[in-house]
Amino acid sequence: MALVFLQRHSKRRSSETQELDEGYAFLTAFRSKDLKIATKNFSDKLGSGGFGSVFKGTLPDMTVVAVKKLERVTQEQKQFRSEISTIGLIHHVNLVRLRGFCSEGAKQMLVYDFMRNGSLDRHLFRRNNSKILNWPQRYQIAIGTARGVAYLHEECRDCIIHCDIKPENILLDVDFHPKVADFGLAKLLGHEFSRVMTSMRGTVGYLAPEWTSGVYSYGMMLFELISGRRNLKQANDGRVWFFPTWAAKRVGSEGHSVLSILDDNLDGNANIEELNRAFKVACWCIQENETERPSMAQVVQILEGLLDVNRPPINRHLHALMQSEESTSFFSKRYLQSNT
């Protein structure tokens, strides 16, 4: 079955920083000791992942930044700087801006704009008494994220597949506008990126079977944005609760609309037309056959109401789970890993 559509941190040469030689890559090359001072010896940790940890820092001009210390970088400095200069050319309102970098032997760091409202997961899953996102905010986050990923896929000089779109990698500025983070890491980390991503298969819940598709992981993220629940959750007996399975059966059963899977914190307050669009997009994005998934540009058009889309089929693996004798929401880790 196929989709049916109707219709410059300013630059000054000083003892602290030096400009990158390539005039087109508006980035600053920082010294590691200066970033150590800016982050107070890397004391304020914002988060961590498979590719390194992120720390809050303040530059001499009082600009607040986020400093990512990369791990497992295997490229030589010349190649690393070349890839950095390419990433530095990428500018979009829904992508986190790279301000600069550090490349001193084994010390490889990236310096980004700081996002005051942190990552999306903090608000979706209510960490540290964070703000509950209302439906208009969630829908704009869905559209903005899709626009950022579409830019990476279709408007960059070289197509960049994110591979790791998840709430932790969607940052929110002071007005809760979304900014996609961690794009371009595949170019920086080379073969090590593939190794880390492969080791994450079957445990994260965002990776497509071929794992190189950002569309699939976007769809999985969209389920979480709608429901306010993690897609994967391990029960005490070792089984894994998979939200899309439950959602597919719930919405498909008599008497239940897509409102039945909406985050309880919203008390049913959502634009039903937008909610239906988001649910259908999520279902299309996680189709098992990669060719049946929409492009991210099409996702943007659907969410904006510029394209209509027919009812999506149920993913084959989800259908198999729904037909099993076990609970439709649970299955073993072994099953999950064998089918991702």
Automatic annotation (TrEMBL):
GO CC annotation terms, alphabetical: plasma membrane
SUPFAM superfamilies according to UniProt: Protein kinase-like (PK-like) (SSF56112)
Compartments it resides in: Cell membrane
Top-rank EC class of the record's enzyme: transferase
Family annotation (Pfam families): Pkinase
Family: Belongs to the protein kinase superfamily.
Binding site for ATP: 69
Catalytic activity: L-threonyl-[protein] + ATP = O-phospho-L-threonyl-[protein] + ADP + H(+); L-seryl-[protein] + ATP = O-phospho-L-seryl-[protein] + ADP + H(+)
Segments forming domain Protein kinase: 40-307
Protein name (record): non-specific serine/threonine protein kinase
SMART domains: S_TKc
MF terms (GO), sorted A to Z: ATP binding; carbohydrate binding; protein serine/threonine kinase activity
UniProt topology in membrane: Single-pass type I membrane protein
Annotated EC: 2.7.11.1
Protein keywords: ATP-binding, Cell membrane, Disulfide bond, Glycoprotein, Kinase, Lectin, Membrane, Nucleotide-binding, Phosphoprotein, Receptor, Serine/threonine-protein kinase, Signal, Transferase, Transmembrane, Transmembrane helix
